[in-house]
Each structure stands twice: as C-alpha cells, then as structure tokens.
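Protocol step 4 of 6.
Sequence for PD-(D/E)XK nuclease family transposase (Anaerobutyricum hallii) entered exactly as in the expression construct, tag removed. Do not edit the line below.
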Amino acid sequence: MIRQTGLAEAIDIAGNRARYDECAKKLLSYKAIIAWILKSCTKEFSQYGVQYICDNCLKEEAEVSTYAVHQDELDKNDKLDGDKRVEGMNTESNSIQEHTIYYDIRLPAFLPKSNEIVRLILNLEIQLDDTPGYPIVKRGFYYCGRMVSEQYGTVFTNEHYEKLEKVYSIWICPDPAKKRKNGIFKYHTVEDIIYGESYTKEENYDLMEVVVLNLGDADKSSDLEILDLLNVLFSATITPEEKKQRLNDEFEIAMTVEFESEVQEMCNLSEALVELGIEQGKELGREERNISMAQMMIQEREPVEKKERYTGYALEKLKEISNGIGIPLMK
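Step 5 output, structure tokens:
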C-alpha cells in the first residue's frame, strides 16, 4: 500500500500558491528542505550529506510563527517537533498585540564536531517583496542581534559569554527583480586586522550571518542545486505533479511511503504466534486463543489510520493460516 508523504500532500494543497506566506512556511517546515538549505548555505554543514543532516542535526523543536522578534512582546505557546511537519501560523499576531512580528520558522541545528556539539540557531524567512522600503540584510542582522541577546538566561548566565551560539538569519525571496534572480548572498562578521597579529579564534567573532537567496525560474538551471530545488518548490507555473516528480527524481526527496513492508511484518508476526501456539500446547482451545491474540495485536499494534489500510489484508492472511492448520478463525 502506498501513500504520499506529508511534503507531497503539502505541495498538492499549496498548488500555485506556494509563494504565499502561509503555504511557503508549511513547505519550508519539512526536514528534507531545511537540510538542503543548511548544506548549501552554511559552512558548518557544507561537508555533510543531506541525509546525515536530516537524521542527526535536526532533532529539537522548531517554532513556526510563535516566537516574537521584539523583547517586549509576548510569544505564542504552540511548538511542533522539528522531526515532523510543523503547521504554519500567521506572521502577525491576531491578538491585542496587533503589530507583533514573529519569526517565520526558528529552530536549532546541531553539528557533530569532534566529541562536542556545535549548536546553531537558525531563522528562515520568506520575503515576498524584495524591495520592502528597507534593506533586507539590515532586517536580517536585526533578527540576528535579537537571537544573540536573548541567549542570556537560557544559553548562558552571568558573564559566560564564551557560551554564545552562532545565529543565522536566512531569507528566501521567491520573486526578486529580474536582474537579481538566481543569486545567493552572505553577510557576516569578520576580523579586520589593522596592525599586529590575530590572537583570537574565528568562532569568537563569527557569531552572526545573514543569507539572502533570490530565486529564479523553475525551467532554467541555475547551476546550484539549492536554487534549482527552491525554484521548483516555489514555482507558480509548474503543476504539483511535476514538482513532486522533479523533487523525487532530481533531489531524492521521497514523495511516497511504501507500506508493503509493514503489512508483511504484521503477517510474519501472526504466523509466528500461531506456530508458537502449536508447539506449546496441542489443545484446540489453546490454539484458538493464540490466533485470537494475534488478531488483538493486529488491532492494537498500529494507529487507526494504518489499521484502515492493512488490517483487512493481515486478517486474510490469518484466515489462510487457520484453514491450513485446521483451526477455525475466531470472530
């Protein structure tokens, strides 16, 4: 039995509205997409494969439009696991905090390095207007500054500034001006030696980085995989079916989930239970109880949505088994 993955379903739902804020946040909330962005846009993750990043570096909670940018504004309480699809919410609060601005998606990422864990705080933002009346990079650094300052009391206390964690603010512009299409730009803090020799490590001043991705057209290759992936994902002209096909074929992002292995596992369990019953007791009643136990385990083993898909199949296998050994299947 086959079903679509959550990302494939989100693509269907978004349709040609993938660039709209709410749809874009839902599409960006999948680990597979975030992993591609991390590998392509951050030096810390560039040496790792996308699958490794998915499995080992995205493990904590992601916040989707829940965390206020300004210190004097309230946060929302809804948080969703970074390992699953997270539901998008309004960028602006609908409560009495009428002008509150929230980060689109904010999440921590963990990078194995020697025997330690380097933790980066990431902020992903969708910017539909790449000329909003102010430089996007300045807003990006403002967000970075907020993410750095709010580490006091959570990441470190007192004067332990050595524990400060690097932050990224990554901005995706789906529809930039033609002259700016298909570009990636990074802005970060560096050391400028006026006189003398450097005496501090790069990690002590490389604490903030803003990345701006200007997308292009899905039918034109950009020579960079991350731009091609996002161009397909946020295209307003190609169909959801074509998007899913290209993401599956060109970027190895699964669009379907195969359930046949789970069905077979259930049948194998049933057969094992029947065989165990025959070996341990020859009485007919005991053998009937073992088959009944197998039925109960099939019903309790999996969630409701999976039961509907393959419980009937597994019960048919049980019926075949019971007929083969001459024991009627209990109803």
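Step 6, annotate. The first helix runs from residue 6 to 14.
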